[in-house]
What does this fold into?
Amino acid sequence: MIKFTIEDHDGNRQEVEAPDDMGLSLMEILKASEYPVLATCGGMALCATCHVEVFDGQDGLGDATDAELDQLENLPEYFPTSRLACQIRISDMLEGAVFKLRGEDN
It folds into this structure.
């Protein structure tokens, strides 16, 4: 199990614990933890409704794919540390990371 922090749309932070051996995405963990993530496309990097900003832990994520960047660059709020939660795989590299929800809430 690894631990990372999620900051919601209101600025409240909560530590989340997730298994790192199941191949889950950050989006799947956020939805399972009942965060307001629409994830309209189901994790295909087509809608950007799972947009997060990475406050800490960017180095462990690897580079965004071209498909992910295409979605992010069309958002009204795009930050240098923006990522799609559906494209971030849960691994020990996320230990201690901090993410802020930026996507549309439902």
Remarks:
- The mean pLDDT is 93.
- The beta strands are 2-7, 13-18, 51-56, 82-84, 98-101.
- The two ends are 28 Å apart (CA to CA).
